[in-house]
TrEMBL record:
<dbReference type="InterPro" id="IPR043129">
    <property type="entry name" value="ATPase_NBD"/>
</dbReference>
<feature type="domain" description="Carbohydrate kinase FGGY N-terminal">
    <location>
        <begin position="1"/>
        <end position="242"/>
    </location>
</feature>
<keyword id="KW-0808">Transferase</keyword>
<dbReference type="InterPro" id="IPR018484">
    <property type="entry name" value="FGGY_N"/>
</dbReference>
<feature type="binding site">
    <location>
        <begin position="79"/>
        <end position="80"/>
    </location>
    <ligand>
        <name>substrate</name>
    </ligand>
</feature>
<dbReference type="InterPro" id="IPR000577">
    <property type="entry name" value="Carb_kinase_FGGY"/>
</dbReference>
<keyword id="KW-0067">ATP-binding</keyword>
<comment type="function">
    <text>Catalyzes the phosphorylation of D-xylulose to D-xylulose 5-phosphate.</text>
</comment>
<keyword id="KW-0859">Xylose metabolism</keyword>
<feature type="active site" description="Proton acceptor">
    <location>
        <position position="235"/>
    </location>
</feature>
<feature type="domain" description="Carbohydrate kinase FGGY C-terminal">
    <location>
        <begin position="252"/>
        <end position="437"/>
    </location>
</feature>
<dbReference type="GO" id="GO:0004856">
    <property type="term" value="F:D-xylulokinase activity"/>
</dbReference>
<comment type="similarity">
    <text>Belongs to the FGGY kinase family.</text>
</comment>
<dbReference type="InterPro" id="IPR018483">
    <property type="entry name" value="Carb_kinase_FGGY_CS"/>
</dbReference>
<dbReference type="GO" id="GO:0042732">
    <property type="term" value="P:D-xylose metabolic process"/>
</dbReference>
<keyword id="KW-0547">Nucleotide-binding</keyword>
<feature type="site" description="Important for activity">
    <location>
        <position position="6"/>
    </location>
</feature>
Amino acid sequence: MFVGLDLGTSGLRALVIDAEQRVVATSEASYNTARPHPGWSEQNPADWIAACRAVFAALHADHTALLPAIRGIGVSGHMHGAILLDEKGAVLRPCMMWNDTRSAEQAARLDATPQVRDLSGNIVFPGFTAPKLLWVAENEPDIFARTAKVLLPKDYLNFWLTGVYASDMSDSAGTSWLDVGARDWSQTLLDASGMRRDQMPLLFEGNQPIGTLHLDVAADLGLSPDTVVAAGAGDNAAAACGIGALSEGDGFVSLGTSGVLLTGRDSYAPNAASAVHTFCHAVPGRWYQMGVILAATDSLNWLARTLNTPPADLATTLGPTIGGPGRLRFLPYLSGERTPHNDADLRGALIGLDIAHGPRDLSQAVIEGVSFALRDTLEALKSAGADLHSLIAIGGGAQSPYWVELIATLLDMPISLPAKGEFGAALGAARLALCAATGAAPETVMTRPEIATTIDPRSDLRAAYEDAYRAFASSYPAVKALQS
């Protein structure tokens, strides 16, 4: 048996598969995010450990004979977070999360530093790890001086599991400290933010083992101390492993808390100016490119809280098929935006609000606004040389046929839905565990899923939605000017 742990923004999910990749068991535990100031987003790493104990306790309770058969663990996690540890491995402050934008000023300075974009292959976004450390150096100098190691979220969980300071290429590529083409820490990039190489973890490919379970942790979780722990992956690279998107043109659209449009690349071909992320993949010799919008289902969740209505109910009111764009326009920049604007200060807007508009109109506007933003990411990916012809849809939003048909029409390409089962980051992490424990080649393990249905673009509505998208795209500079 092999376990994939997905350390998500709102909770930890455990997925157990057997050697044939059949799902045997699942378990989940949640934790909270603190937002003590505008733009701040923090979590307590101790909550992740408690969640890990909880999911294994639940697995043991429901499947008593399962845990002794586990041979490998792989962890996927939300990227870009900063966990600062002292020389004894103790956490010095809460983790600054991927959606924490307090370091916008530091990110802009780093981004303007010579060679930073060239070596990292990316714009330095405020959510990345390096500007967070600059912020700590300037605002919490005592903590910065005591920092002996910096780990990413899933790497902290791996550290607790094994006692090894390790990271994989895909997660490390989002720090602005990794030479993404060379797949190694860059002294130039470390110097730019006042960091040292000895503060960095050891680097592995995601399918490589970093060690076995610490004896005390193995006893605590009810596992064998010989259980192999894989280096794992950042959440999007893990999702790509789960969906089988390893090679050039293999892609998916993820409608989760954030929205992601991702494609595998066989070579390193960055285009930082497009605000597209170019990162190492979780397997050797491959990379991936993606555009990210910060609020996808999070936009619908915001509306659901505002209207005191479950998000699924809001989506259901729109029916199963699209019928043309609405007149109410929503800009989904509730937490700023990454692709293509790289604007941490930008905020959302509703344009054209009428006294006659009700919950259905608001729901349509929100789903359309998120979909228009995903079209922005496709244009950015095209400018970076990516060539996408079809996609697989994953994430909670993909359960809405209306939403998937809308995206297919806006992107002008068919979108497929997997037949059944698990195809997200937890499965990708379990697949990495299988490779680490058995030595299996990633290409033989990380295959594409069986497709249940494919939703084609609506050619009869293509022109109408194209006009609506152009109006959406023209709204950004006007809204930005109003907020300046």
